[in-house]
Amino acid sequence: MKLSQYKYDFSPDMLAKYPAENRDESRLLVFDRKSGKIEHKIFKDIIGYFKEGDVMIFNNTKVFPARLYGNKEKTGAEIEIFLLRELNREQRLWDVLVDPARKIRIGNKLYFGDDDALVAEVIDNTTSRGRTLRFLFDGDYDQFKAALYKLGETPLPRWIRPKVEPIDAERYQTIYAKVEGAVAAPTAGLHFSKHLLKRLEIKGVGCAEVTLHVGLGNFRSVDVEDLTKHKMDSEQIFISEEAVKIVNTARAKEKRVCAIGTTVMRTIESSVSTDGMLKPFEGWTNKFIFPPYEFSVANAMVTNFHLPYSTQLMMVSAFAGYDQLMNLYEVAKKEDYKFGTYGDAMLIL
Q1: Where would one find coiled-coil regions in this protein (predicted)?
Q2: Residue-wise pLDDT tens digits, 58-75
Q3: Phi and psi (nearest 5°) for 197?
Q4: What gap in Å lies between CA 65 and CA 184, rounded to an integer?
Q5: 268 domain residue, yes or no
Q6: In which element (H, E) is residue 196 found?
Q7: Continuous H helices in 204-261
Q8: At 81, which CATH number?
Q9: Is residue 161 part of a domain?
C-alpha cells in the first residue's frame, strides 16, 4: 500500500467542531463485512448488535492538561510547550514539543504562569521540534503535578478549533478514563455514556480494559510513500491478566470481540500468542497496522471517521478492506456524517 492511496476529497467543513449534545447520540454507520450491508443508526443503537457473552475492549487511558503557555528568559518571547512523556519523576524530566522551536536552545529557561509559578530549563534537543525539559520546582511531586494541572490546558487538537472551551475539559475524555498519561483522547470511546454502558452490562456484554497512553505517534504524519518504511513512535501499553481472561474466554466461545477504537486494536495486536490469543503485557508498542494484515483478536471494531493520510485510516482499511472503507467514506460524506475527534462513529462487523 502507498501513502497516496489514502487521499480522499476532504473539506474542513466535514469536521465536528463540538461534540454531540449527548455522548451516545452521535450518528453511527454500521458496516457488515460479510454481507456488505450498510445501516445508518444512532450510536446508542449499538447495543442491538451485541449479545450476552460478547465483549467490548476499552482503552482506559486518561488525558492530562498537556499544553502550557509561557515565556522565554531575557527576550520574554511567547512559547507553547506540549508535554509528551514524563521521563523521570524525581528529576522532573519531560519530553515536550516546543512552538516555536527554532529559537529554543539547550540551557534556555522557560517561565510559566503568574509570578513564574513554574520554571523549566532546556537540557536536550531530541528532535527537530522536540526538547527535554527539567522543571525547577522545590515542592513535592503532588505539589508539582498540581501546578501543572493549574497551568495546563486540555490538549484539544488545533484542527478542531483554535481555542479550548470549558466543555472540552469533560468531553475530551472518556467516562471510563482511569490511568493518567495520554496527550490525546481515544476518540471512539467518547461516544459511550454511563447509561449505555449500564445497558450493555445488563444485557451481559462483557467489558475488558487495556491501556495505551496516546502520545506523539498519534500526531506524527506519514512522510514516505512506501508504508513499509514508516516508523511509528512508541507508546506505553498495559494488558492485564483480567483483561486477557475476559477476552480469551469470549474468543474461545466464538463470541463477538469488539475493539473500541484504533488505540485498542494496536494494543491487543501487540501481544498475541501463536494461536491467536491475547497475552498479558506491560511495555511499549510501535506497531503500525496497514493492509494487508490479518487480525488475531477482535472481530469487530468501533472507530471514528479519520483524516486523509492518517495512520488510523490505514489501520481501519486493513480491518474493513481498503476498497470497502473508501466507499464507506464516500457514503458518509453524502450522508453528511461528521468527521474527526468529535465526529460520528462507525461500527465494523
Answers
A1: none
A2: 999 999 898 999 998 888
A3: -60, -40
A4: 10
A5: yes
A6: helix 194-203
A7: 241-252
A8: 2.40.10.240
A9: no
Cβ(72)–Cβ(108) below 8 Å = yes
Q: Is 151 exposed, middle or buried, given 0-12, 13-18 or 19+ CB atoms closer than 10 A?
A: middle
User: Looking at beta carbons, which pairs linking 19-22 to residues 24 or more positions away fall under 8 Å?
Assistant: 19/167, 19/171, 19/190, 19/342, 20/342, 22/193
Contact between 84 and 182 (Cβ < 8 Å): no
Range with the lowest mean pLDDT among 178-182, 213-217, 243-247?
A: 213-217
Alpha-carbon dihedral of residues 227, 229, 233, 235, nearest 10 degrees?
Answer: 70
Strands across the sheet containing 27-31: 38-42, 27-31, 345-348, 300-304, 257-260, 55-59, 206-212, 235-239, 281-285
**Cβ burial 238-254 (10 Å sphere, 16+ → b, else e):** bbeeebbebbbebbeee
Read off the pLDDT of residues 171-187 as tens digits, 9 standing for 90 and up.
Answer: 999 999 999 989 899 99
Do 124 and 216 fall within a single domain?
A: no
Rounded to 10°, the helix 262-269/311-320 angle is 70
Rounded Cα gap, residues 32 and 45, in angstroms: 15
Q: Return phi, psi of residue 38, to 5°.
A: -120, 130
Name the residue range of residue 310's domain.
3-63+168-348
Separation CA 187–CA 218 (nearest Å) = 11
How much is the pLDDT for 76?
85
Confidence of residue 132 (pLDDT cuts 50, 70, 90): confident
Same domain (yes/no): 104, 59: no
Cis peptide before 19 (omega within 30 of 0): no
pTM, to two decimals: 0.91
